[in-house]
Amino acid sequence: MRNIGYLIFISICLITGCESDDNGVEEPQAQPTIFQGRVLYSDTNEPVSNASFFIVGRESVLFAGDITIEFNDVMLDTASQGEFDITFNADPEIDYFFVGVDFFDEQNPGLIIGGSDFANGMVCGPVGCDDFVPGNEYTDLTIVVPRPETN
After folding, report:
1. Per the structure, how many domains does the chain have?
2. What is the phi/psi pair of residue 92, to 5°?
3. What is the spatial order of strands in the sheet that 31-41 belongs to?
4. Which of 31, 49, 56, 65 would bridge with 134, disulfide CB 3.0–4.6 Å?
5. pLDDT at 134 over 80
6. CB neighbour list of residue 88: distance below 8 Å, 6 or more residues apart
């Protein structure tokens, strides 16, 4: 009889010791995301320089539209040969990313080409310019952009 009481006591301790204090809800974790590739001009396939390649993380919010959560960019200069390599832990609230190119041109200061929000000839491959999901590795990306027109 004494052994049964001892077993009941041990069982109760084990059951209460295994209780979770998070109510079964798992907190979202930052997701490692990698973007690697190059940006080329569509007319010559030459690497883009004097520009910035950027990544914008957005959250889709019901009745409010999409909200920017995160912004990452890298300078594309002559030394980079149009190549980019960005690795970061994406905010867990991000639903998708879109990418773009911001040119630094004296004739067209601040000219931006990017994502589906800009219908101006930018092409991304093998993934669409606004089809990037957090937590993935996007390597060997090719972003093709039209050359900025001079005024």
Report:
1. 1
2. -65, -15
3. 83-90, 31-41, 137-145, 123-125
4. 31
5. yes
6. 32, 33, 70, 72
